[in-house]
């Protein structure tokens, strides 16, 4: 008895199989391209956070008789420390209504621009009036008197923060929240094609991590 030869695949089947492999290859190449594009859109930056202390080579000015600045948007706050009266001249204000947060921030070069006293403007920051800039603010969380970011953990994506600066109000929407190890450096992942507000603080109920909150600009008044 002669054995029957197996049926040879039709030419159309071979072509179909080849077409499927081609399409899968195109999709793989497209995916890699999109990933590469995403890496270009979302840049990262390592920041060395300010140490929790006032610079030792700066003498604190305790003269409370200094005249008010001409900029009406500058806020002055007095802090009583024993017999001294310190005047903070804030150049802007951060407000997050959901968690009843409203705090001023200082010029980057101010001797009081450190997390031991205020919401700190990180030196790699650019202010809201800079195109595609990133205002990066850091503060403590917890139960201390300077733990201004203690309730940030209650925020969710879509929540709103506003920054008053230079006579304008900038409204931002929260688009990303992520944790990083507490090493003194923080990686900032954001879209460089838009203005961004970044808030950094210690992660709630963690001694080893910090949380980064990325807001993107919605509108300016």
Q: Which short descriptors sum up this protein?
A:
221 residues; mainly beta; Sortase, Chain: A; eight-stranded mixed β-sheet; two-stranded antiparallel sheet; elongated
Q: What's the topology here?
A:
Blueprint: H1 11-41, E1 43-48, E2 75-81, E3 84-90, E4 92-96, E5 101-105, E6 120-121, E7 134-138, E8 160-165, E9 168-181, E10 185-190, E11 196-202, E12 209-220
Parallel strand pairs: 7-11
Antiparallel strand pairs: 1-10, 2-3, 4-5, 4-8, 6-7, 8-9, 9-12, 11-12
Q: Could you walk me through the main structural features you see in this protein, from its secondary elements to its overall organization?
A:
The protein is mostly beta strands and 221 residues long. It has a domain at 43-60 and 95-220: Sortase, Chain: A. It contains one helix and twelve strands. It has one helix at 11-41; strands at residues 43-48, 75-81, 84-90, 92-96, 101-105, 120-121, 134-138, 160-165, 168-181, 185-190, 196-202, 209-220. The chain has an eight-stranded mixed β-sheet with strand order 5-4-8-9-12-11-7-6, with no helix packed on it. A two-stranded antiparallel ribbon has the order 1-10. The radius of gyration is 26 Å and the shape is elongated. The termini are far apart.
């Amino acid at each position: 008895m002669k054995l029957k030869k197996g049926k040879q695949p039709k030419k159309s089947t071979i072509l179909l199989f080849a077409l499927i492999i081609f399409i899968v290859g195109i999709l793989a190449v497209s995916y890699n391209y999109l990933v590469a594009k995403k890496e270009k859109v979302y840049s990262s930056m390592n920041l060395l956070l300010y140490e929790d202390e006032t610079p030792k080579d700066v003498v604190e000015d305790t003269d409370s008789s200094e005249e008010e600045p001409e900029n009406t948007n500058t806020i002055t706050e007095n802090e009583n420390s024993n017999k001294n009266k310190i005047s903070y001249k804030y150049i802007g204000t951060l407000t997050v209504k959901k968690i009843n947060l409203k705090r001023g921030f200082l010029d980057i070069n101010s001797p009081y621009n450190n997390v031991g006293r205020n919401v700190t403007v990180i030196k790699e920051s650019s202010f809201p009036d800079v195109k595609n800039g990133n205002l990066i603010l850091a503060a403590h969380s917890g139960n201390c008197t300077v733990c201004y970011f203690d309730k940030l953990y209650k925020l969710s994506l879509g929540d709103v923060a506003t920054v008053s600066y230079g006579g304008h109000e900038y409204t931002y929407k929260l688009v990303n929240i992520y944790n990083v190890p507490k090493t003194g450096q923080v990686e900032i992942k954001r879209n460089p094609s838009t203005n961004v507000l970044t808030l950094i603080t210690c992660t709630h109920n963690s001694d080893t991590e910090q949380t980064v909150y990325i807001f993107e600009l919605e509108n300016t008044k």
